[in-house]
Amino acid sequence: MLFQKRLDRARNLQRRQRGLPELGEENKSVSPDEEELVEIERPSPADEMEKGDMFALMLSGFLTIFLPAALILTALALLVCWMFGLL
Q1: Cα–Cα separations (whole angstroms), residue 11 to 25, 34, 51
Q2: Does residue 21 sit in the same domain as residue 6?
Q3: Residue 34 sits in the same domain as residue 47
Q4: Backbone angles phi, psi at 27, to 5 degrees
Q5: Is pLDDT of 6 > 60?
Q6: SS3 assignment for 27-73
Q7: How much is the average pLDDT of 35-40?
Q8: Residues 80, 58 share a domain
């Protein structure tokens, strides 16, 4: 592969950050699926969130999901009304 050395370095860095031993030349046969089997302790999302994060998440969800859907449904309703001469 063209970037095999870079991929190996990145994989070894991730393994070091997880606290796993680095892959040596003799251990290259370990598949990525076996790496995922190692249980990693991660803090819950509530522990990582700050005070205003929940409001920001809800606001961004509203702006990216609900608002465009409401605008599309309103446009469709206006189009149907215009087609049937109800406006």
Answers
A1: 13, 13, 34
A2: yes
A3: no
A4: -105, 15
A5: yes
A6: HCCCCHHHHHCCCCCCCCHHHHCCCCHHHHHHHHHHHHHHHHHHHHH
A7: 59
A8: yes
pLDDT cut 90: percent of the chain above it: 30
Mean pLDDT of the chain: 79
Place of tokens 């999302």: 45
The pLDDT of 4-19, averaged and rounded, is 83
Retrieve residue 83's tokens: 């087609």
Q: What is the DSSP letter of 26?
A: G
Structure tokens at 81: 């009304």
How many Å apart are CA 35 and CA 14, to the nearest integer?
11
DSSP single-letter state for residue 15: H
pTM: 0.41
Q: Number of structural domains, the chain? A: 2
Task: Spell out the residues 6+ positions from residue 60 whose beta carbon is closer than 8 angstroms to its own.
Answer: none
Write the single-letter amino acid at 9.
R
